[in-house]
Amino acid sequence: YQPGQVWKYQTRPAEPDSRVTILRVDSASDLGYIVHIAVDGLSIKSPQNQDGVAKTISHLPFAEAAINSSLTELDRTGPVPEFREGYQNWRDGFDQRKAGIWTVSVADAVTVRESGLSGSK
Question: Are 58 and 110 in contact (CB under 8 A)?
Answer without folding.
Answer: no
